[in-house]
Write a structure and sequence with these properties.
Strand content: 15-25%
Distance between the termini: 84 Å
Radius of gyration: 33 Å
Largest sheet: 8 strands, mixed
Length: 283
């Protein structure tokens, strides 16, 4: 450029602000960048160095922007599955393995959420599907029953060690350690409904936040807890799992956004079907 006026015109700005900004830059670097005594304007040696470095920085920034855009465009798709605490967990590794075998380019991850939390997470996009218990019908969410999981009693190992089946009514005087205490409704409400269906009122109700805490209290002899059959995968010293005379079941559901026809969801459904069918054959 032969003058600051011509440069300002090229930048679609007034000349005084451009001259002011150049003076500010010269003050910041501590030296003169332009030889203003000649026409056309010429860069000083310091100005030439500043120019070369500025061009390098701009090219690097452009290259970084291009690289990031390519990375985002090629980023692996993600699929997030919600899980209710302790339900079906013994089979989840096989489900993940089957999913990843069929969709190796998809990043698969899980989040532990209650059934109610899963519905909220589906609606705001934090998860793509969920394994949950029975929940109220929601017009935006599709629910499919997968199977009914048995419910067992977790009791201290010192209680009737030779007895392998307990009648739920025989435990009525034992405190019931219920989980989770929040958020509700949850598995805790399923258990309380089962008690009511059999005309049983727990002698004492101890509510805790997590299954692990419930098992610790059971091991300490504070009471008994009803748990999904898959919870037996969580070994806890001092606790044994026994069948109940009543055929108590917990329905497990697959929930996802209504109208979702993605390839990832189809892959999950196929993986679940395969694992569930294999489990049935094994029993």
């Amino acid at each position: 450029m032969s003058s600051f006026t011509e440069a300002a015109r090229s930048l679609h700005m007034a000349q005084p602000p451009l001259s002011q900004r150049i003076r500010e830059i010269e003050q910041e670097v501590g030296t003169t960048l332009f030889n203003r005594q000649v026409r056309p304007l010429a860069l000083t040696p310091a100005g030439r160095l500043f120019y070369d470095q500025a061009v390098h920085v701009l090219r690097t920034a452009d290259a970084m922007d291009t690289t990031m855009r390519k990375f985002v465009a090629a980023e692996r798709p993600r699929f997030v599955l919600g899980l209710v605490p302790a339900a079906f967990h013994a089979n989840i590794p096989r489900v993940i393995e089957a999913f990843c075998t069929q969709a190796p380019d998809v990043e698969f991850s899980v989040r532990e959420l209650s059934s109610v939390e899963q519905i909220v997470a589906l609606k705001d996009g934090r998860i793509d599907a969920g394994l949950c218990g029975p929940i109220a019908v929601d017009t935006d969410i599709s629910l499919t029953e997968l199977f009914a999981e048995g419910i067992l009693a977790a009791v201290p190992t010192s209680w009737n060690p030779g007895k392998r089946i307990f009648d739920l009514k025989s435990l009525v005087n034992r405190p019931l350690v219920s989980y989770p205490s929040e958020p509700r409704p949850s598995f805790a409400d399923v258990v309380l409904d089962l008690y009511r269906e059999h005309g049983i009122q727990p002698g004492e109700l101890i509510e805790v936040r997590e299954l692990h805490t419930a098992l610790v209290l059971v091991a300490a002899g504070r009471g008994i807890s009803l748990v999904p059959e898959s919870a037996t995968a969580l070994a806890q010293p001092g606790v044994r799992y026994v069948k109940l005379a009543q055929p108590l079941k917990l329905k497990m559901m697959l929930c996802h956004r209504g109208g979702d026809q993605s390839a990832q969801l189809s892959t999950l459904q196929a993986a679940l079907k395969r694992v569930i069918q294999t489990g049935k054959k094994a029993t």
